[in-house]
Design a protein that fits this description.
The chain has 219 residues and is an alpha/beta fold. The protein has helices spanning 3-20, 73-87, 89-93, 110-117, 131-140, 156-159, 169-173, 203-218; strands spanning 44-45, 60-66, 96-102, 125-128, 145-149, 176-180, 183-187, 193-198.
């Protein structure tokens, strides 16, 4: 097996591992608070502003953890949550704030997040911060993740992998994927966890559950 084939096989294995990993291991139980979401402890949004809960006043929060270099799992999850919000219609969708918290703050700078979130939903807010703060936030939600080096497809597109493995040391330090659990968390206006959508939940399933929760909160 050549180098490019080996890397592709590794990526496929990581994607499958992420899908099979329990999505919310040690996550807070439904009805319990997870510190009213992560947006009030120093995280920075994709506009370069410190995030605050006041930014999301009177809204439910729909939160996804991932990273912009993710080849498959994260784009799929973010697309599903974006479509689910749109399925709620203009009025219902406006009552839900979608948040994307990076687990890769070394590469996911404010500028990178700003370019990325616009690919999914106009109201999607990207959040980053120091590695220690991101780790503490992810731990609160039961999100497990770790870096896997040497799995980039560098060299695939232009040279059939002829230059694979010839990166400088600095490039090697940033040449990794992240294996991580994948789930989308729905919080009410008071910061209590209502439900966790596993990876693979359809936009229709998510929208139906959110509509039910919104109706119950307003009934």
């Amino acid at each position: 097996m050549d180098e490019v084939s080996r890397r592709r096989a590794t990526i496929r294995a990581l994607i499958m591992a992420s899908m099979l990993w329990p999505a919310a291991f040690n996550a807070p139980a439904q009805g319990q608070s997870a510190g009213q979401a992560p947006a009030h402890e120093g995280l920075i949004d994709h506009r370069g502003k410190q995030a605050s809960l006041s930014d999301f006043a009177d809204q439910f929060l729909l939160i996804y953890f991932g990273y912009t270099f993710c080849p498959d799992i994260c784009p799929t999850g973010l697309q599903a949550m974006s479509q689910a919000i749109d399925l709620l219609g203009p009025d219902g969708g406006a009552k839900v704030a979608p948040l994307f918290v990076t687990i890769d703050p070394e590469r996911d700078t404010v500028a990178v997040l700003a370019d990325y979130v616009g690919n999914f939903h106009p109201r999607l807010v990207g959040l980053t911060g120091s590695p220690s703060l991101i780790k503490a936030t992810a731990d609160r939600f039961g999100i497990q993740y770790f870096k896997v080096f040497g799995t980039s497809l560098a060299g695939d597109d232009d040279d059939d992998g002829k230059n694979a493995g010839k990166n400088d040391d600095d490039d090697e330090d940033r040449n990794y994927l992240i294996s991580h659990s994948s789930a989308t968390f729905l919080f009410d206006r008071k910061g209590y966890l209502l439900t966790t959508f596993p990876h693979g939940a359809t936009p229709e399933e998510m929208a139906a559950e959110m509509a039910r929760r919104l109706a119950a909160a307003e009934g």
